[in-house]
Design brief:
The chain has one domain (2-161). The protein is 97% helix and 0% strand. The protein has helices spanning 2-87, 91-161. α1 (2-87) runs antiparallel to α2. The chain is rod-shaped, with a radius of gyration of 37 Å. The two termini are 30 Å apart.
Length: 162
């Protein structure tokens, strides 16, 4: 009788140990899957943020290029009027040409300033968009990792119950 009880106890011990090992492996597998899923979500979130940051950077570059064109055009107009001073035949014509050139240069400076201000606003908007995109990506990464951690903890609890 003792041998039968010992054999049953031994079999019960082996089956319990096997069940615990299987439960631990299951928990580890679930944890791994949850972490892989979280990693995928993190990569996707960062990819989206990087795309938005690239778009924002391109917008800022385009805005600066447009401002530079506007500034060059305005300066070219002022330069044309300034060139008229040199072509003036009389002092009266030269004086009138200088007055026109000064007004033209003032106008060009104003246009250049406005163009740069507009570009600066677009750059700031682009930087803000990039910051928002990165913040959203960071939030999604934290949430994904939280989900993975919860899944891992749930798996450990389930394994402990088995």
């Amino acid at each position: 009788m003792k041998k039968i009880i010992a054999a049953l106890a031994s079999a019960l011990l082996v089956s319990t140990a096997f069940a615990q090992t299987a439960a631990q492996e299951s928990a580890t597998t679930e944890t791994g899957r949850a972490q892989l899923k979280a990693n995928d979500k993190k990569v996707d979130a960062q990819k989206t943020a990087n795309e938005k940051k690239t778009d924002a950077s391109e917008d800022a570059t385009k805005a600066q290029a447009a401002a530079n064109e506007d500034k060059a055009s305005a300066q070219a107009d002022a330069n044309k009027d300034a060139a008229k001073v040199a072509r003036a035949d009389t002092p009266k014509q030269a004086s009138a040409a200088r007055a026109v050139a000064m007004k033209s240069q003032h106008k060009a400076n104003k246009k250049k300033s406005e163009a740069q201000a507009k570009a600066n606003v677009k750059k700031q908007d682009a930087n803000k968009d990039a910051s928002v995109a990165q913040a959203k990506a960071d939030k999604e990464k934290v949430e994904a990792q939280g989900d993975a951690n919860k899944a891992a903890a749930d798996s450990k609890v389930d394994a402990a119950k088995k």
